[in-house]
Design goal:
heterodimer, A: 375 residues, Rossmann fold, OB fold (Dihydrolipoamide Acetyltransferase, E2P), 2 domains, six-stranded mixed beta sheet, five-stranded antiparallel beta sheet, 8 helices, B: 230 residues, mainly alpha, MetI-like fold, 11 helices, globular
Chain lengths: 375, 230
Amino acid sequence: MTALTPAPQGGTAAGSDRPVELRMRVDWPGFVLEVDLALPGRGVTALFGHSGSGKTTLLRCIAGLERQGRGRLAFQGEVWQDSARRIFVPTHRRPLGYVFQEASLFPHLSVQKNLDYGRKRVGTEPSVSLAQAVELLGIGHLLGRLPARLSGGERQRVAIARALATSPRLLLMDEPLAALDLKRKAEILPYLERLHAELDIPVFYVSHSPDEVARLADHVVLLAEGRAVASGGLQETLARLDLPLAFSEDAGVVIAAVVATHDDNYHLSRLDFPGGNVVVARRREPIGTRLRVRVHARDVSLALERATGTSIANLLPAQVTEIADADTPAHVLVRLDAGGTPLLARITRRSLDQLGVARGKALWAQIKAVALLSD
Amino acid sequence: MLDDLHPALSHADWAAVWLTLRLASVTTVILMFVGTPIAWWLARTRSRLKAVVGAVVALPLVLPPTVLGFYLLVTMGPFGPVGRFTQWLGIGLLPFTFPGLVVASVFYSLPFVVQPIQNAFEAIGERPLEVAATLRAGPWDRFFTVVLPLATPGFITAAILGFAHTVGEFGVVLMIGGNIPEQTRVVSVAIYDHVEALEYAEAHVLAAGMLVFSFVVLLTLYSRNNKVWK
């Protein structure tokens, strides 16, 4: 399956290339979290892992909500915590926004007053205007209501706007969609993508959903049992075969593509990326729009020659870079380089032997029928 | 005159009613200030002392009022530590005075104020405070803008119970306050006096008044709708 989502446009002003340095250890009975990371000061960083992997605890340490954490945390050169020097900046003095899994609006305050709560406590002139936050999350018509009169999705949008209204220099989001059903998720995801595209605030986003990570993240930290097993750019990290990520049902890559042409006869659009292109059902986005294409390993098959007489439209010349065991003994995962764009293919071990697939071999990757995740 | 309108209530009885209301009001106000930090601590602490403090606060619920009154009398008396201290301060001794009654009432009604507030604090949980902290609110700010508004029903319950329970005390007052008109002679003591003197009509008026008052208070309490924000 190939999934398409609009890609972030990249911000301009506030974000910094100075990394967030995070060295943290939390010792609890039966659970130890220990990480030493340098995270990007711009874009969306996904803290990704199963429940119990420590991702929420890590986010709470960054916010200063977990006092048991020991270590050092510096954000864009400002030290927020340094246990060795007994420095601990309390949460309310850290210029961050936090969106919890449940919206956690103040029940006694109207939407407007919820938004005002953080905003009026920020001393400096905010870089995100309240009107901008309200517009971005589409909550203008809800301002007079009490939280009890909102739907789950509306509440979470208000919570996001409330965090944004403080003009945070770092936005922390703890599975903001996890408590919502599929329909509500679909309702909020476009707002998160807009946020990413229109505001230049670094976001740390906790998630256990590969789909959300593929749609939103630029950088991925993979957490397992309290350790960071990988930290890197989205494309490289998803295409790594040595990570547990590769063994999931959802193994696959994300390709950053650009809408190149529309074919109105056949209702198709061509998306270009370094190393090739894919043809998908007609997109509404204008030519030049950047889109993310998600290609699952299970939707990529291999051929020794350019196939003719096939309905598969998307064929890419590629070279095998790595072969690894998959989650079942019947399958292997093949990592390919399609002119600079990494791809994963999940094929049977028998096909591997019959085709003589080996590292360095040049062949054709066939991307099967296209499905759209968002529209 | 009030006495003409209510012939069954003598001037002394009216004084007892007034004194009772004054005692209950002063006690309630003090208890709200004393009880809130205790309730906050009990609701938040992970200290092992929590059980001990909680039990001490709850003692008046189970102790005979005479026990509480007896020990208060001893501590505040001329040879007790509190008594020596008040004498050293130059304010004399507290037993058989209105301030003495207030001190005794504060102890006696403490659990009735602490427990509803503590329950309200516990019901709020950590989350709204964490949210407020991420929205730049400091600890005091969080308390006044989040905790107080969210715990308001608990505070109202606490004030009503504290007031009503103080109005209804008898044993402690008798031990600490004695029976000095306009000083320590509250309604419950006045009723006792009337019965002792076989003045049943007067006792009836005061007793019926207490009955109606208590019923109305409890009725108010139980019919209040706590779901204010729905």
